[in-house]
Structure formats: structure tokens, C-alpha cells
Amino acid sequence: MTVAQSVARAKPISDQIALFESMVLTHEKALYQFAYRLCGNHHEAQDLLQEGLYRAYKSFAKFETGTAFDRWLYQIIHNLYIDHYRKRKRRPSVTSIDEPIQHLETEKTVEIADWTLNPENQAMRSELGDQIQRGLEELSPEYRTAVILCDIQGLSYEEISQVLNCSIGTVRSRIHRGRKMLRRLLLPYIQEKGAAQG
Amino acid sequence: MNCLTVRNLISAYIDCELDPEQKREFRNHLFHCPECNEEYEQLMSIKNCLENSCQEPVDFNLLEALYARIEEEKLAINPQTDGFYWGSRILMTAACLTAFFLTTFMLFPMKQKSTAQTNLSFSSPGIMMDQNITIDQPVNVYQASWVLP
Fold this sequence. Notes:
The complex is a heterodimer of chains A (198) and B (149). Chain A is an all-alpha fold and 198 residues long. Chain A is built from 10 helices and no strands. Chain A has 2 domains: 1-92, Rna Polymerase Sigma Factor, Chain: A (Orthogonal Bundle); 126-198, Arc Repressor Mutant, subunit A. Chain B is mainly α. Chain B has a domain at 3-51. In chain B, α1 packs parallel to α3 (34-51).
């Protein structure tokens, strides 16, 4: 049975929730990679993914049965990221250093894994992965998303055009320009590594 | 195909997004043009590099995060549904209306009194309603109406 058929058959709410959960778990890793490559750090990626999943959960009834679930989620996450990116660009965050931070009574303390200060983890992380991430961060969000979806997530141009809601020609030019920008940033590193190995 | 066209199609060729005829022409051009071939090799290495990039470890429970977010939404105080929010609004409106009417009643009785006094003095100057009036000399209707209450 295809996903579309499953969605069409799962009428009761409990079935819909169970189906949603199973589909999320199926694409868990791919979604996390996408969010991480977009944001560039784990904290932002987790926040983006949480909000994206929440939006998807709320509007799961509107999920079109003919479309793929992962692409639908990529679209939601991409739109959220673009909105957030534009807002952040318009209003840079200002924090007062004089006023103490006010804590709400209802505030909960959540333990979050520290990804930045763990030297072992830092050492274990791939150097190439870091280099790629730095390169991706240099690209504008539109180019970055197109390159990530094509080269890391392995989507076709048609699928990317559905996610980004643009023409295949636009996708093609974004990927091409994105790769050329990445070449400028990554090629010296790749050549250096190749020379060292060879 | 010239060099410009080929260079614009390199990424599409790498991703197998060209039709068979374009692919054939593209390969023929690469075979004869070392500059375009070099650019193709470079972009191909970028694609391979991205494809082989290590996957970041997922130390994050998506469903747990989702349900935490749903709980957070439930706990959040919504001013639109809060009873105190609407109660205070109604009280404010009532207070405004009361202040308006009080001000109006404070002002209007003063004006009504003065109008009534003017009318009385105009219709019968110096004569009370229960007084007996006698007119000694002949007067016309207009003079009588002036004197009589």
C-alpha cells in the first residue's frame, strides 16, 4: 500500500496520528540532515524541525494524498527557514546587558546537549563536513536549499521545483550557480587533500 | 553546442537531467574541449564531495519534541479566551459610559432651568399663576396676551 492510499484510508484521528508518527520516523534522519545543513548548527536545526513538525501536525488534514510526505515536510521547513531568515535580517536581535533576564514562573528547564564545547565531539567531527558546512553558509538560502536537496538529499529537479515552488529552469540555474560558488570555496581544500593522499 | 551553452548545462548533465540528444552533443563537446572538460571535472568533484559528506548524528527525538511543542501551546495563556481579559474590557466600557452620562446630566439641567425661567418671564413678567388680574383700561389682544398668564 502506498503512502497516499494509507492517508486516504486512515480516517479516525488516532489512525491519522499513528500514520503521521510512522511517516515522521521513516524520514527522521533525512529531515534532520536537511535542517542541520540549512541552519548550520544543531540548536537552530532542532528548533526549526520542532516548529516545522508542529505546523505539519496541525495541517496534516490538508496533506494532499498525491504528494510525497518528505517533500511536503521539506517545503514546510524551507518556508519556515526563509521566514525566519528574513525576519532576522530585518530585525537584528538586541539584548540589554544592564537589565537582568526575567524568568517566567512557568518556564521549564530543559537539558540540551552542548555541541560546541565538547572537545572529543569536535575532534570526531569530520573536517570535510565542517568545510562543506562553511561553504554552504556562504550561499544565499535559495541556492543553499537547492544544492542541499539535490546533492545531499538526492532529489530530482522536478521534485526540488515542487518543494521550492518554482520552475525547473530556476532550480537548474540555482544548483549550477550554487555549485560554482561552492567550487570557489571548496576546490582548494579538495585539491590539497587529493595532493596529500596521492 | 558552443562552450557557453555547455558550461551552463554542466550541472544538468551531472544530475542526468538532459535528454539523450543533448547528452550526446555534450559528451562530444567535452571530448574536444579541455577547458570545458576541466570545469566539468571540478563541478563533478564538488557534487561527489557533497554526496559523500558525513551524516550528522541524530541525537534528537523528533516526536518527543513535537509533543513538547503541543503541550507548550496548550499551556500558553491565550488572551482571547481568558475570562479576566474580557471582564476587564467590559468594566472599562461600563466605566466610560457612566462617566459620559454623568457629565451629560451635569451639564444639561443647568441649561433647561435657564430656558424655563426665560419662557416664564417672557409669557408673564412679574405675575404669578394664582393672582387675580384686573385690567382697567382698554387693551388690544396683543397687550392682553402680554399681561395675562
